[in-house]
Amino acid sequence: MTYIPKIWIIIFLLSLFLLVFYMSQIEWTKTSELPQKSTAVHSARENSSNEKDTILLIWFWPFNRKFDLNSCESKFNIKNCQLTDDRRLYSSADGVLIHHRDIARDLSNLPKLPRPFFQKWIWMLFESPQNSLRLPGLDNLFNVTMNYRQGADIVIREQLQLKPQETEEPLKNKSRKVCWIVSNLNGNLARVKYFNELNKHIAVEGFGNHFHRRISREQYTQTIESCKFYLSFENTHERSDHTTIDYITAKTFDPLRLGAVPVVLGPPRHSYEKFIPKDSFIHVDDFNSPKELADYLHMLDQNEDKYQQFFSWKKHFRVIMVNWPVEHACRACQYIRNKKSFQVFTNLNKWYWG
Ligand SMILES: *[C@@H]1O[C@H](CO)[C@@H](O)[C@H](O)[C@H]1NC(C)=O
Ligand SMILES: *[C@@H]1O[C@H](CO)[C@@H](O)[C@H](O)[C@H]1NC(C)=O
Ligand SMILES: *[C@@H]1O[C@H](CO)[C@@H](O)[C@H](O)[C@H]1NC(C)=O
To answer: Same domain for 141 and 164?
Structure first.
């Protein structure tokens, strides 16, 4: 056995120790200080709990309305959804949200790259068929539909929801009888004719651009609260035909929420009755003429008990509004995340336009 002096063993061990220490420092610097190359998508996809985010690509900002892409969790408690408007992520997107009203007539602005096998295209529309073009080529193109109508894969609409317990909701004092807020009117619509006739028999207080009385968002709320009745006239050309079915919008739910009785024109009464109590609103179809309706409104104006009966639903239900369009994007992502089955919407044009 060769003799090695103690001092050499000590020096050897010391340098070994220093070397190991030095290497571990290099490792540490590498992982912590190198620039983070991975994007949010990358890290989400490699989540250690094996729970990767669902990516929803917003192909068009609906009517160019932008919103915060990071609010699904904070606003709607929808987790693991990543919204993006970055078209470079097309090939990894689980869903592509496509707003019908922004599609070019010849479909030329739709995605051109092949659709990945896992990806679903979501057709989104919240305008009535009357106000939306029927485009050839939409059948067998989309996987999922999102609309206010029953029968869509994702139905989103304002609604009344049961309260956890009964509460009284006192109405604000009313300084006005009949009100209407309109930004623009197209002269040949049914609602204009009806309004002109009604206004001869009961004074309607008009607000908005059309009446040269612009109001702010806050004034909008206060104005409706101050009215006994509100004209919830939908923007439709004819009344009560197939193409207006279930098209009941915030024009009706805002007065319900704010304590004015909606006087509705649009879909037929039975359509409204699917979504709101039959004694919570007045339908123009219930009267033979605008004059008859005006007489009825005059009568209610003089009879507080009868008027108050329109609000008995408020004890048990409250109005849930929809947050356009961020809620729609989050719900679309949630749907894609939960529903993994193969699906194609084969007859979109017939289903929507009849
Ligand atoms: C990974 O998924 C878990 C569970 O859904 C989540 O709590 C966590 O924030 C995710 N981590 C990353 C880096 O996305
Ligand atoms: C509503 O009107 C009544 C009677 O005129 C009055 O006593 C009450 O203070 C008013 N309430 C509000 C909220 O303005
Ligand atoms: C989506 O629809 C397209 C078009 O019909 C179809 O080719 C594709 O397989 C569908 N994808 C899924 C995931 O359902």
So the answer is: no
Domain shared by 182 and 131, yes or no: no
Counting ligands in written order, the one closest to the CA of 36 is: 1
**What are the CA-CA distances from residue 255 to residues 103, 252, 262, 267 (Å)?**
32, 6, 6, 17
Q: What residues make up the domain containing 124?
A: 39-156+324-353
- Could you list the pLDDT tens digit for every one of the 354 residues in the chain? 566 678 888 888 888 888 776 766 554 444 444 444 444 455 445 545 567 999 999 999 999 999 999 999 999 999 999 999 999 999 999 999 999 999 999 999 999 999 999 999 999 999 999 889 999 999 999 999 999 999 999 999 999 999 999 998 888 999 999 999 998 776 557 888 899 999 999 999 999 998 999 999 999 999 999 999 999 998 875 555 566 789 999 999 999 999 999 999 989 999 999 999 999 999 999 999 999 999 999 999 999 999 999 999 999 999 999 999 999 999 999 999 999 999 999 999 999 998
Q: Is residue 14 part of a domain?
A: no
> Which atom of ligand 3 sits closest to the CA of residue 121?
1
Say whether pTM exceeds 0.85.
no
Does residue 179 lie in a domain region?
A: yes
Annotated catalytic residues are 127
Beta bridge partners of 231: 263
**33, part of any domain:** no
Is the shortest distance between the CB of 343 and ligand 3 below 6 Å? yes
Atom of ligand 3 nearest to the CA of 119: 13
Test site for ligand 3: of 97, 115, 336, most ligand atoms within 8 A of the Cβ? 115
184 and 282 in one domain? yes
Ligand 2: centre distance to CA 32 (Å): 65
Of ligand 1's listed atoms, the one at least distance from the Cα of 44 is 14
Number of structural domains the chain divides into:
2
Q: Are residues 173 and 141 in the same domain?
A: no
My answer on whether 291 and 348 are in the same domain is: no
Q: Alpha-carbon distance 204 to 297, whole Å?
A: 11
> Tokens 């192909």 — which residue?
59
Closest ligand, as measured to the CA of 175 = 2
| Residues 232, 283 within the same domain | yes
Q: Which residues of 62-94 are buried (b: 16+ CB within 10 A; e: fewer)?
A: beeeebebebbeeebebeebbbbeeeebbeebb
Task: Name which residue sits closest to atom 11 of ligand 1, judged by CA.
Answer: 47
